[in-house]
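Write out this protein's structure.
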Amino acid sequence: MKSIKEAIDRLNCNNVLECFFGLNEADISIFHTLRKLGATRIEKLSKETGKRENSVYKSLQKMMMAGIVIREKKTIEDGGYYYVYRAEDVDKMAREMLDLLERWYSRMKEVIEEFIELNKEMEAKTIA
């Protein structure tokens, strides 16, 4: 786990996706390409990013689990189907990040208060 100071120092627009959604550089590259292309198939994403389809698929799976990519099933008239993927709305993602940040802040305040209490109790036992 990185220190909060280190995380703050290296935080930027790209790695905010790493911080909030656990994405790596390859995932972030695929995410940005998907945003640029709009709803598209894995084959097109693979070609555009220069990454193998199975690697693109793994990144898309991770981003779907994080809730920032949506998969839609498209039906072929003659039978069959295929999937297209699209990035979630940026405003919705930003609201979720702000919500997560508020929850993190509240939890950190609780943990710090617990830390203070625990140390007060330890000091009281040491004095007694």
